[in-house]
């Protein structure tokens, strides 16, 4: 596969220099005695993702003899990468590339050490316009491309067909409503058998929050209002939280107290949860557990399909011109359809571009994986969270509101009021 990829000797000429004109450092920075440039990558992956990215790193190193990507550093998983990188930037000793969540990009991009990739990706080997719209939007901050896309997903509902059959409930179909979802969850809940209709992460982190945005967007709301000074979901957020409150009152929702939704997915794969909102990354584990499953788009309030997407990123940091050029070469290589397809298939993600989606290996994989096409087709109606510096504060406030409603500790209106107070205050801070 990679034998057809042209090898580039970055240090042999200046062809790559224009897209890194803003980088500091001398041309010799990071260059070993043998002329090899070493690039430090903090990928933050575990298990399957770690094996996939390290196999690609090994392939890149074999096909790019003047660059060596070292993927052994970082020492943290992706959930803790923002804090790790922030501390590293403060100390002055930071990686060349780090895996940064899309929701954290605006915060990290405020650092002058983040390399502007606008020219590199607009003129890269993977045409910019072939990237899905959520990909392009998710790596763009104030009109500039501040990172390379690393991984793409979308949200849909995976359901256990066996539990539906046992309960005599019809399988859900595209175009269903949130009222139908909550009614179905109630009908499929069996406390005596420890069976829940659905689940929701209950730690208040981004995994808790991002599942609510499609509901808010579907109702006509937005994360930030047009004036930029207030949240854009003061009313719509209450309506969405009322749906969660209904699930809580019915005792049909399993609220997972641990990060990452690990227990929620374990309950689903053990055959004790009928439906779970998730992304394509979970399908390999669901298949491995032998669950008789299928996938359906998210319910709607309006009848218009909408989901959430957005890439996590490879963010490049300036450690001198030679290392920056080499780092950019690596992330552009990772975006190319051949590598992207390998990464997507191994890591359980979606193609970054239409070119990847058209590759025969991806098409075979999609045909062989039940429901994967639902996640891919959902990209046509996907929206992304705004790449806004105040987003982490908004997310934290909304996460606490969601958990308080799921646990029955607050009303939707009261929880959203407190969320709005904290979020609006964050939006007023100059950035």
Automatic annotation (TrEMBL):
Pfam families: SBP_bac_1. It comes from Streptomyces kaempferi. This is ABC transporter substrate-binding protein. Residues 1-21 form the signal peptide. Keywords: Signal. InterPro entries: Bact_solute-bd_prot1 (IPR050490), SBP (IPR006059), TAT_signal (IPR006311). SUPFAM superfamilies: Periplasmic binding protein-like II.
